[in-house]
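Aim 2, interim progress. The first record below pairs a target sequence with its structure tokens.
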Amino acid sequence: MPSRFWGIRQNLPRWLKIVISTTALLVPLAVWSLLSYRAWVTPIFLPTPTAVLQAGRQMFTEENLLLDVAASSYRVFLGFMVAAAVGVPIGIAMGTFQSMESLFSPIVGTVRYMPVAAFVPLIVLWLGLEEQTRVTIIFLGIVFYNAIMVTDAVKFIPNELLSVAYTLGANRLNVLMRVIVPAIIPSIIDTLRVNVAGAWNYLVISELIASENGLGFRVVQSQRYLQTDKVLFTIALIGLIGLLTDLAFKLLFNLVTPWAERSTT
């Protein structure tokens, strides 16, 4: 039977999308409001939405929260861009050439399972307590996932497509630059869109290291003084920045690869 709600890979009506998305936001907010405004949960554990908004206003007006936003955004952007510049070419090489896969796979496949937090003492020992240390932690947190995901994208290109290119007279460089790379651009954008969330996750770890500003630093500092309202606002702010970043990647996807729009989720 046809179904709007349970249709497999079928577009939903716009009004139904809005209803579902609004419900997904309002239900948790309603539960939070019920528990906090009725004082069923102690405010130190769950402050009211009003208290969280007031704490956010205070942080922006009196505690220079914009400086923390700028500092964290800079660290995430720099670590993310370096991870993309390193991980994506390695992924393309691993997916295209078995020799490169044999060269990089033992390192990428092993190190990506190692917790980045375990490397923090070594990174501090090698790089000190400056900005490069925090950027390096973010870089290590996502670079190997970039490489693995791009490698898989290359391997999903049908061999028949490569054979046709060779039949038409293409050499290896032509196949790489005019067949493989254009074919995986949608997957590269999706990979970066997914892994930028990891960059924000590793931000908190990176800002534990002798940091004097940043959103991760603000979370830890507020937690230390049991300022739960400030913790919740800062976390929500990170989520909002992440949401805007995700929307920017989706816009980039639609602009750069309009032919792949229908196949995305």
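The second target in this work package is listed in the same format:
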Amino acid sequence: MPRRLSILAGTGSLVTHVIEAAQRAGDEIQVIALMPQPDRPGVTVLPGDTRDPMSIIRTIRAFRSTHITLAGGVTLGDRAREGLSEFATGSPASAGDAVLSKMSAVVRTMTGARILGAHEVARDLLAPNDRIAGADLTGQQLKSARIALAAARDIGRLDLGQAVVVAGARVVAAEDVGGTDELLHRVARHRQEGRIGDGVGPLILAKAAKPQQPLSVDLPAIGPDTVAKAAEAGISIIAVEAGKTLLLERAAMIEAAEKRGIAILGLKHG
């Protein structure tokens, strides 16, 4: 029996990838736009207002959804976060990005639909525990990559972000509410202004899932745009948490990395 899948859609190519995977699987789908969407011929796209969570619940119920997935980036201001937190927990205290995890549990209770991670709809997305692109790392580079990945998990534990940049064994920048693109822009500026110098080892971008988050919500992701911006920032290695990071437009991402001399690898935590 085909699934009836509601896709809560943010921004980015992940949305298209999930829609196409669901169509190939024969799912009946509706897209609920949490962020503005491009034209999607043949796909039902309905508005979804994060400031009015009950309107989203009604849309899911009306479709008689059996499954729900969240795909793509969603930008939430403090007021929207507080509104979602109050809806999910009864308290308006902002809970950072973790409020989406709490919201997903409430949505499941109120709709009866099963929450799926994007990788459960599009199963080719997850990073392997292996080299993904570029040259193999030296022993010292691999040690630095593991330090970077551990640091990314540490800032995730604080619900701050999912990414850090490391030079050698030193964390030089961490993701905040501005996201990965803003992080890489800061790193590029720091290099231009001489705050990050040469000779301390390669710059490594690491992305990891927040330890407290369910895998159905907001997994870290990289794609060709990440590689291009990383190159502009002087990064030569990208380390991601294997099994918990989404690889978007994988072939194009690998091509971009090879062209720019950037190594990408997946690493298991621990």
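The mean pLDDT is 91. This observation will shape the mutagenesis plan for the next reporting period.
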